[in-house]
Design brief:
By secondary structure, this protein is an alpha+beta fold. It is built from eight helices and twelve strands. Helix 2 packs across helix 3.
Length: about 270
C-alpha cells in the first residue's frame, strides 16, 4: 500500500473537522482518503467477516498519517456498519448475520408498524442478456450475460412483494436454481458465503405503479392495485455494483420505511 504522504498531501491539524487537503486535484478531508484506502484493504486483502484489521498504530504507520486520522476514518466505517470495534481486541470486519442484513437492507413494514421477517420463495431462475439500463447500473456492456432471479416475499402468510434480481454471470459462476433453493439465509448472506461478495451499500429509488395482470396473479390482488416500485442497486467495497433489483410491493397494507440515525435495529440476533 502506497504511503499517503507527498508534497501535495499533509496531515494537517486533525482536531479541526473542516481541514481539507489537495489530492489528485480534489479537495477531500484526509480521513476520508484513509477511509477509501481501508475499504480497498478490505476488498483486496481478502479480509473476511470476523477477521481483525491491523492495529490503529500499524495503519497510521502504513499510510503515513496520525493515529487520530486513522481513528476518524474507522469511526465512519463503524457508523456504516462495515467494521466493528471491540474494546481491548481491535477492529473487525462486521459479521453478516441475518439480523444485521435485515436491519440494514429490509425496509418493508406493515402499516400498523409491525415488522415481520419475510419468507422468500424463488419461483424463477434463468440467464439472459443485460439491457441498456441493467448494463449501465452494473457496469457491464449491453448484452453481457446476467442471471435473473425471481422471488416472492410473504409476511404473516400474505404475499406482499415480488423481486426480480439481476447479477452478472461472471461474478457468480456456477450459480444454479438448486443452490438458491438450498440456501438457509438471506440472499446477501448467500453472496458472501458462496462467492465472497460483501454487500455494504444499497441505493433504492421508490416510485408509484399499479399491479399488472401477472403481478396481481402472483400477489393475489386485483389488477390495478396500487404498488410501490423499488429499484435497487447493491454495491460491494469500492462502490462496485453487484446487483440490480426491481421490487413490486403491494402497498395496501405495507409500506417502505427508511430510518436514518438513532437506533435502527428492528431485528435482534
Amino acid at each position: 500500500m502506497t504511503q499517503m504522504k507527498d508534497s501535495n498531501l499533509k496531515d494537517t491539524n486533525a482536531s479541526n473537522p473542516a481541514y481539507l487537503v489537495l489530492y489528485e486535484n480534489r479537495s477531500i478531508p484526509l480521513y476520508r482518503m484513509i477511509k477509501e484506502e481501508l475499504i480497498r484493504l478490505l476488498q483486496n486483502k481478502g479480509i473476511k467477516s470476523g477477521m481483525a484489521l491491523p492495529s490503529d498504530n500499524e495503519l497510521a504507520a502504513q499510510f503515513g498519517v496520525s493515529v487520530g486520522t486513522v481513528r476518524r476514518a474507522i469511526a465512519e466505517l463503524v457508523s456504516e456498519r462495515i467494521v466493528i470495534r471491540q474494546q481491548g481486541r481491535g477492529t473487525f470486519l462486521a459479521p453478516y448475520n441475518t439480523s444485521r442484513m435485515l436491519n440494514s437492507f429490509w425496509h418493508i413494514e406493515r402499516r400498523d408498524g409491525i415488522v415481520d421477517v419475510p419468507v422468500v420463495s424463488t419461483y424463477g431462475f434463468s440467464q439472459g442478456p443485460a439491457t441498456d439500463e441493467i448494463a449501465q447500473k452494473l457496469a457491464l456492456q449491453k448484452g453481457d450475460p446476467v442471471f435473473i432471479i425471481q422471488n416472492l416475499m410473504t409476511m404473516s402468510d400474505s404475499a406482499v412483494l415480488l423481486d426480480t434480481i439481476y447479477v452478472p454471470v461472471h461474478l457468480f459462476e456456477g450459480l444454479t436454481r438448486e443452490k438458491l433453493l438450498a440456501r438457509d439465509a438471506t440472499i446477501y448472506d448467500f453472496y458472501r458465503e458462496q462467492y465472497g461478495i460483501n454487500i455494504v451499500k444499497t441505493v433504492d429509488r421508490v416510485s408509484g405503479d399499479v399491479a399488472s395482470k401477472q403481478t396481481a396473479k402472483r400477489l393475489g390482488c386485483e389488477v390495478g392495485t396500487p404498488m410501490l416500485r423499488i429499484i435497487r442497486v447493491a454495491y460491494s467495497f469500492g462502490d462496485k455494483p453487484i446487483e440490480y433489483r426491481c421490487s413490486l410491493l403491494d402497498s395496501e397494507n405495507h409500506e417502505y420505511v427508511d430510518v436514518t440515525g438513532g437506533d435502527t435495529g428492528r431485528f435482534s440476533g
